[in-house]
Specification:
The protein is an alpha+beta fold and 177 residues long. It has helices at 51-66, 114-128, 142-150, 161-166, and strands at 4-7, 24-34, 37-48, 70-76, 79-86, 97-99, 102-105, 133-138, 154-155, 171-176. It is built from 4 helices and 10 strands, in the order E-E-E-H-E-E-E-E-H-E-H-E-H-E.
């Protein structure tokens, strides 16, 4: 399978970009924090994006590019099958972090290394911008946590309260660049 990875410009981020993107995730186990320790527990739910959510995400990606961030897409036969982005605003006590808010691969294209390649490209772009670390508020599902561990992420040394407030159940991670 030939995959084309490219940085997306504002003109690439049209409202219908995610129309055929299959954001389906079935979760059975989640990681949670219990008295400063992380534990797994059973928690079954399914997440899917509807058209409204897809348009909101495209708008978020447009804003990212407008303020100096980066969006990378993965394409197969001219169809977007994966994407990730790095925001352009530094934060942290030493302004060492850039946030990686989105990294998703369409359900039918998972487990082919596309997510790992997108993550690596984001690391390279963030480092080129001067970041020392990527900050990730990661979905608590066991599979998502496994993915982030496999690409070298650890629990965040500093917690960004604004990012945590968006999704309080997400696990705050970082990746040293």
């Amino acid at each position: 399978m030939k995959i084309l990875y490219k940085e997306l410009l504002l003109d690439d981020l049209h409202p219908s970009l995610l129309t055929n993107f299959n954001r389906y995730q079935e979760t059975n186990m989640v990681l949670y924090k219990d008295n400063d320790k992380y534990r797994l527990k059973r928690d079954y739910f399914v997440e899917e994006w509807d058209d409204v959510k897809k348009r909101e995400i495209v708008q978020s990606l447009q804003q990212c590019v407008q303020i100096g961030g980066i969006v990378i897409g993965a394409f197969h036969s001219e169809h977007l099958i994966g994407f990730a982005n790095v925001e352009g605003e530094f934060f942290g006590t030493e302004k060492q972090y850039l946030e990686l808010p989105y990294i998703h691969v369409s359900n039918e294209y998972r487990n082919f290394g596309i997510g790992k390649q997108l993550f690596q490209l984001c690391c390279e772009k963030a480092e080129q911008k001067g970041a020392k670390k990527l900050y990730i508020a990661a979905h608590p599902s066991e599979e998502t946590q496994h993915f982030y561990r496999s690409v070298g992420c650890i629990y965040a040394e500093e917690i960004n309260d604004e990012i945590l407030a968006r999704e309080p159940l997400d696990i705050q991670l970082e990746r040293v660049l």
